[in-house]
Specification:
This protein is α/β, with parallel strands linked by helices and about 300 residues long. About 35% of the residues lie in helices and about 20% in strands. Strand 10, helix 7 (about 240-250) and strand 11 form a beta-alpha-beta unit. It binds guanosine-5'-triphosphate. Guanosine-5'-triphosphate (GTP) binds near residues 123 and 139. It comes from Cyprinus carpio carpio.
Length: about 300
């Protein structure tokens, strides 16, 4: 076994020993990825570019930064890496998740970060929206339902400030509902999705909103997304119906397509802006209005090919 392999085993053993029969979630407490590496600082890192699960020799399933052992919704363990800047939190996480070391110069992470959670019925396209935003790709082919919860990070720039979005991809299936409830209160924003080709997923939005009001923070930012807008021939929910429902609850709305990318960037950028403005309001700066921002960006993209 190589030296690197040995290191990987040691770290994995250490973590597994304290978390048998649990879902293990690892989170680096660094606030932002290195600025000079661009928006997605670790495109193939522990923050996960691939949603494909890999089986280890232990019969364990590794999914991005989430390690699923025997599923038991009563036992969920979140491990947070803390320590001084530069001690190697990110490197340890990547070593554990991918069995490799990220060489290169160290860049301290700075800035602000927020948690965005994706909710909605199973198969509405939550994972695909996330992958489209994070990696600019579409996950076609066989549908693999999310188990429990998974997370990915992406850094976006808002008014010259780096804002890290930690995005939680939740399982839409009913049996995972109690797992996801535990995470609602940590989210500053929620993207609630339905599938424009499946009426039941639209009808269930009211139930999702009831859950949100029960479990989420009172001032959480909510956005309603009608996904799969590319499937015009199979559409059963009109744009107007989506808009009407959103208006009733006073939340912003747009239709998206993880397949073509339409409005995906816009949805996340609008959320990032809203959260940044809520947290850092410059004196004399006009109040940010998310509805107006979305409308003006939509118009820009209609006429000049702006944000996809
Ligand atoms: N045509 C089209 N298909 C999509 C789109 N988004 C997702 N899909 C497909 O819909 C299926 C479900 O997508 P997922 O992203 O896995 O759904 P999910 O909401 O994460 O499902 P759970 O993990 O069970 O909660 C997959 O087969 C995707 O390829 C889209 O915008 N357009």
């Amino acid at each position: 076994m190589s030296e690197r392999g040995k290191v990987s085993m040691t770290i994995k053993d250490l973590l597994l020993r304290s978390t048998s029969h649990m879902e293990l979630m690892m989170e680096d407490t660094s606030d932002l990825e290195p600025v000079e590496q661009g928006e997605a600082a670790y495109p193939d890192s522990a923050y996960g570019s691939s949603p494909v699960d890999t089986d280890t020799e232990d019969g364990i399933t590794l999914s991005s930064s989430t390690l699923i052992l025997t599923y038991n919704e009563e036992l969920m363990h979140k491990t947070i890496l803390v320590g001084d800047s530069g001690v190697g939190k990110t490197s340890l996480l990547v070593q554990f998740d991918q069995g490799k070391f990220i060489p290169g110069s160290f860049s301290a992470t700075v800035g602000i970060g927020f948690t965005v959670m994706l909710l909605g019925d199973s198969a509405v396209g939550k994972t695909c929206i996330l992958v489209r935003f994070k990696d600019g790709a579409f996950l076609g082919g066989n549908f693999i339902a999310t188990v429990g919860i998974d997370f990915r990070n992406k850094v976006v720039t808002v008014d010259n400030m780096k804002v890290k979005l930690q995005m939680w991809d939740t399982a839409g299936q009913e049996r995972f509902r109690s797992v996801t409830h535990a995470y609602y209160r940590d989210a500053q924003a929620l993207l609630l999705l339905y599938d424009i080709t499946r009426k039941s997923s639209f009808d269930n939005i009211r139930a999702w909103l009831t859950e949100i009001y029960e479990y989420a923070q009172k001032d959480v930012v909510i956005m309603l997304l009608g996904n799969k807008s590319d499937m015009a021939a199979e559409r059963v929910i009109t744009h107007e119906e989506g808009e009407k429902l959103a208006k009733e609850y006073g939340v912003p709305f747009m239709e998206t397509s993880a397949k073509t990318g339409v409005n995906v960037e816009l949805a996340f950028h609008a959320i990032a802006r809203e959260l940044k403005h809520r947290n850092i309001q410059q004196p004399h700066e006009p109040k940010f209005k998310i509805h107006d921002y979305i409308e003006s960006e939509k118009q820009k993209s209609n006429c000049c090919g702006g944000i996809m």
